[in-house]
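Example complex used in Figure S2.
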Amino acid sequence: MGLTGAHAELLQKVDLFAGLDRMALAQVAAFVEAVAVEGGSTIFRQGEPGDALFIVARGRFGVFVALPESNTEVRLATLSPGDVFGEMALLTDEPRSATVRSEDGTGELLKLERSRFFELVRREPALIHSIAGTLIRRLQANAQLILQSEHFIVSVVEGALGRVDPARRRQILEASVLDDVGPEALAALFGADAAEVARTLGECGIVPGQPAGPVLRILRERLERELGAEYWQEFAQTAAGHLAEAGLWSAALPLYARHAPRDVFIAALGRGVRAAPPPAPEQIAPWLDRTSDEEVAQDVDLALAKAALYEERGAPAAALLLLERALGAALTDQRALDARRLSDEIARLTLATGAEPAGALQYGLQPARARRVFRPGTRALLVGVALAFAAAAFAVPAPPARFGLLLAAAVVLWVIDVLPNAAVSLLLLASWILTGLTDIGGATAGFGSTNWLFVLALLGIAAAIARSGLLFRIGLLLIRRMPQGLFWQAGTLLLTGVLLGPFLPVAMGRAALTAPLALGVAQALRLEDREPAAAVLGLASWIGAGPMLFAFLNASPACLLAWGLLPAATRQRFDWVQWLIAAAPLALLIGVGSLIALFLVFRPRTRAVLARDRLALQLAVLGPPSQRELAMAAVLLLTVAGWLAAPRLGLDAGTVAILGVLAAFLTGNLDGRSLRDLDWNYLIFYGVALSVSGLMGALGIERLLSDTARTFLADLGITPATFVLLIAVMSLLAAVAIGEQTVLLLGLAVVPIASAIGVSPWVAVMAILATVVYWLIPATTPEYLVAHAAAEGRLYSHAQAQRAALAHVAVVLAALALAVPFWRYLGLM
Ligand code: CMP
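Predicted assembly (829 residues):
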């Protein structure tokens, strides 16, 4: 059934969701499903197991409980649109506490499946507060009713207990520890007496398989009064032990949860997971849901079981996060075997689903670095190599050699990732000063440059945008207006990624944003997971968001780093506008070429038209843009206009960006917290990288490089055009080997050489930027992993992506060759 604007209004009015902001609510909209109900039909009956929560969209619904003493029903409440029901069973795993029936005419419900509900709670913990409120109000109302029937029940129970001897009476009281008095459970507690106990319980009104809330409560209270609370707790724990021994985990676990200290409960849950024969998953899963990741991380089996549950529910990123945490705990306690099992599972999960820890999905502002996996031995060896380089640097007298050795040591450390990037960068900086290559002023010059401030400002703008919800809205609007025809749809997604460049200047952030949009389109087209058309949409959005970052000067810190490496004169020439003009043909060729390549590789069948209802619903839930959002939009437009006009105003792009960040602060789109959350690790690395380039010039290394290269390349007969292609190939290889450091290292090397053989350094760095985000080996490209995970792995598999990556190389090399005449025309070659 379709979702409409009316549903959007409804979702905004639901008490349960009152604590959620509109972005979160729009995500809820993607989770619910509308169900039509006929008048008089029963939604569920008291005592049934519960697996979903409902929101009344239309019609009236009655909530009824059966009274224990008679066959009559009492109305607890009447629910109208906006009310929620079915939450109790979902949260407590008790059977449905009441029957719900539709009353007048046809009605409509929005259904939220159990697993989706928990997924939502995981993302929006604030939900728990409002649910607790609803629960407590309802429980209070029900308590009233209980009081009324209490009197009658007490007399029945008294009668039954009066007819048995004291020993049996005590057993009956003790049996009330059980939520369900099934024969196996009674046998586990009372052995040969079980049958007799069951009979007397029956006289009190308790029969197996039926909810007996009030009677149990009365028995429990009596036991507590007569034997004391302490005895009660102790008995409950002993009983839980017996039940667990008998393999009755669904009876034992609630007792541990209610009556034992938390750690005893967790330990029992661990025994449950390890039990042989293993209990059915539904006996354990509800209790795993009630644990925090932190609690289970200490126990490998629990951690593995809970991670499996996450994975089953389509949240591999959460699974991975938990496994990594458990691995951390295992390593701290030196549990080698456990660590082994966990890392095997992490490897399997990463390969199977391409998941990345959930943190990376927060619009990628804190990029989770894809860690290259080195065996401890290899890693130790590489650390040794780095140390040897560093030691040699202190020994050699020639400054250029010393500089090169120190840089080599830093590169090794960057690549093996033993220390954060920032720490290695600072180490490099310190080593220059200690070896007398430069003084503190020279070493930190990078941080004082406008480039550095430019990047700082850009990351700030990115943070402000991610917080405002603006791009999410623009994305939704865009796919709503999506043209018909798969080619154009894929093209729109690709173009969106490219055009977002100056607005969200972090490739990972764009990937995290456009991948869900592509998923939305695929769902609206009713495509199957990973079918060719889905792969085309997903990979088109990825290529636009990631590999095409070269189109704008400020589409990525990598571009700005490359820009920072250019000689001052070249930098002067390539302001924001000139960069765009010179890069446009290459971008056009690669964009169109990739689309054609994707169609050739996957040969998708085109299909039905877009179903736009859910998109419309998500938009409607977002509502009209808030003042803050509008202000952010204005700030962005002004900033981009500023970049366009900067040359004429005599400003540079960095200054414009800084004014933009200021405006974001003043309009409340940025605050101290978001500033703290910037990727400082990268910013520190970036500052040192700029110093590296300055130092190379000061030490005369650039001249050295260009002189040697000039003769060498001339001897080999390398023309400017082949030089550009050569750089591209080296960059592809380097991207796989040393990842994100490619721009810095290859850039440092090719900039001086390029001028020497008559190629503008700008063209040289362009060849690097066009190839540096290369995803042939997924694990080495964090941006790609984020795109894949943000599409929940449902649009394409890694194998499909790898086929596309191969085709993409061909496209990029051809496009570079085709762009050469244009660059010649611009006088760049
Ligand atoms: P659940 O126990 O899953 O199934 C029956 C539902 O009836 C229950 O969740 C609540 O959502 C709802 N319910 C129970 N008691 C009340 C009450 N007093 N008022 C309104 N709704 C109730």
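The chain has 40 helices and eight strands. Residues 356-371 have pLDDT under 50 and may be disordered.
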